Amino acid sequence: MKELDLLLAAIMAAPQDDLPRLLYADWLQENGQVERAWFVRVQLQLARHRPDHPEWPTWEQQQRQLLERYEQQWTQPLRTALGLPPGVWGGWVFRRGCAEYFHLPAALLLQRGAALRRVTPLLALYLYPCSPAELRQLVRQEWFGSIIELYAPHTVLDQAAVVHLVDSPYTRKLQRLEVAGLEASVDTYWQHACEQRFGITLPRSLPALPPADRSRRLF
């Protein structure tokens, strides 16, 4: 395994730890990517401190200037992994120096998720659109095992999706889950299992009412 692969794996293994990211910054600097290394360190400073810190405006300005100048270059491997043409935003958000949070359609991730995780520490997803069937498939992907945050606020889960979320070996690191709720037919056992596993309350969607029979009269 290449040194860069080991560094990205270390970040995914300990996503809240600054040390692997600082080692990644050191590697970038040693390999001629001085501006990218500085960007990692600046974002780590922003994450560590409150906005009232005296250096905050300076760090914020440096972060913005570096992204304005280098984002197209830095994100080219992401666009390649996602199969996107130059200049197209691929839903990425940089946090603590890395593109680790993505807003993407579930269908694209089913095709490209493994390739994406090979080039960046993939830790958080916002899925839209995302059907229950697509969610079931995603959480069974080996690359999904690094995900710690999953947001699918427009997705109502069916029972199969709930079972896969609770039982999949690749959701063990998942700490935060946000979805629209559950279908009314989901078994209470699985509802409670999912709520307990992720520490959330899942509302049930009301079943659709049949259309009114306008041929019947009340009087």
List keywords for this structure.
219 residues, alpha/beta, 5 strands, elongated
Can you describe what's shown?
The protein has 219 residues and is α/β, with parallel strands linked by helices. Helices cover 47% and strands 14% of the residues. Strands 1-2-3-4-5 form a five-stranded mixed beta sheet. A hairpin with a 2-residue loop joins strand 1 and strand 2. Helix 5 packs across helix 6, helix 7 runs parallel beside helix 8 and helix 8 crosses helix 9. It starts with a helix and ends in a 21-residue tail after the last helix. The model has no long low-confidence stretch (mean pLDDT 94).
How far is the N terminus from the C terminus?
79 Å
Helix content: 40-55%
| Coarse structural class | alpha/beta
H and E order = HHHHHEEHEHEHEH
Q: Quickly count the domains.
A: 2
Low-confidence stretches: none
Can you tell me the overall shape?
elongated
Rg from alpha-carbon coordinates? 21 Å
Largest sheet: 5 strands, mixed
For the secondary structure, the number of strands is 5
Number of helices: 9
Q: Overall pLDDT, averaged?
A: 94
What percent of residues are in strands? 5-15%
For the biggest β-sheet, the strand order reads 1-2-3-4-5
How are the secondary structure elements laid out?
Layout: H1 3-13, H2 18-30, H3 34-48, H4 56-74, H5 76-82, E1 92-95, E2 98-104, H6 106-117, E3 124-127, H7 132-138, E4 149-157, H8 159-167, E5 176-182, H9 188-198
Parallel strand pairs: 2-3, 3-4, 4-5
Antiparallel strand pairs: 1-2
Helix pairs in contact: 1-2, 2-3, 3-4, 5-6, 6-7, 7-8, 8-9
